[in-house]
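Second attempt. The first submission of Metallophosphoesterase had a stray character pasted in from the spreadsheet, which I only caught after the job came back as garbage. Lesson logged: always re-copy from the clean sequence file. Corrected sequence (359 aa) follows.
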Amino acid sequence: MNKKPILILTLFLGFLMYNFTASAQQAYVKPKLSNKDSWSLVLIPDPQSYVKFERNVPLVNLMTAWIKENVDSLNTQFVLCTGDLVEQNDLLNPNGKAANQTSKQQWSNIRGAFQKLDGYVPYVLATGNHDYGHVSAEYRSTQYDQYFSSDQNGLNAKALREVGPNLNGNSSAVNAVYEFTTPHLKKILVMVLEFAPRDTVLQWAKSVVDKPAYAEHDVIVLTHVFLDKNSKHIVNQGYKIQDANYGAAVFEKLVKPSKNIRLVFSGHIGEPNNFEGHIGFRQDKNAAGKTVSQMTFNAQAMGGGWFGNGGDGWLRYLEFLPDGKTVKVKTFSPLFAISPATQSLAYKTEKNQEFEFEL
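This time the job returned cleanly.
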C-alpha cells in the first residue's frame, strides 16, 4: 500500500485546520469598550495630507463619519485633533505635486469633514505650523477663525469656558479652554494652545489652570509640537516665527509647574511609511507629584509618504475605565475596517500602539 498520498492528504488537512484556527483567532472585531461604564475620546492625527489632494478628501470624511456612527457605542465625550489642519494656510497656486487644492479649498475640505460631527460630539482642534503663514509658519497669521469658531458646533459653545489671546488681542478659539463632565462625574478641562505658543499664551494658560475654580479638575493640554520620535521634549524647530515655545519650554513653563495637568496630546512628527517616526509617549511628574502622561500621535506619512493617501485613516480612541485611573489605547483605521478584504489590518497591535496606562 502506498502511504504517500495519505500522508500528503493528512498534511493538507492539517494545513487547512491550522489556517482556519488562525483565521478564527484573528477575526475582525468591531471597536467596542471593554467596560460598559467606560467613556472614550478620539484622537485624530494631522489631517493636512488628506485635504491637500482632492483624491484624499473622502478619507478624512470617512474618519469623521465613523466617529459619528460610533459616538454612542464608544460613549465618546469629545474629539481632539493634533493640528496641521491644512498643508498650506495661504496659497493660491498649488503646483499639483505638493498639493492640488488651494488653501481655500483645503480649509473648506477640513471644515466639511468636521462639520459632520456638529450636534453629535464636541471637537477641539489644535493649530499646527502649516496652519500659519504662507506655507509653513513664516509668520503668525491663520485662517483658522474663518472656518472654525465655537458657535459652529453648539456642543463646543456649551463647553467653552476660557478664551486666550490671539495676535490681535481679539477673542479666538486658537487658544481656548473647554469644560466637560465625564459619565463618572469627573470635571475635565481641555486646553488647546496655538502652534509653538507665545509667552503671553503660556502665562494666560498657567493663570487658568491655577484658578481655584479649576483646582479639582483634571486638565488635558492639546498642542501641535511636543515630543519627538524618541519621546523626548522637542527643544527647537527652527521656524521663522518669533517668541515660540516648543515641547521642552511648554513642559517647563506650564506643564511641570501645574498641579492638575494630567495629559498632553500632540502630533507634528513623521517619517515616510514608518509609524515609529510618528509616535511618542512618556510620563513625568508635575509640581503636585501627579503623573502627567504625554502622547504624540501622527500618521500623515503612512500610506505612501508625504504624497500618499494622507495616513491610511489611522486614529486612536482612548477608553477611560470606571476606576478613574486606567486608560486603554487603541490605534484603529476606519479605512481598513470598512471592507472585509482589509479588516485584518484595521488595528495596530504593537506594544506602542495598543497599550494601557494609569493616570
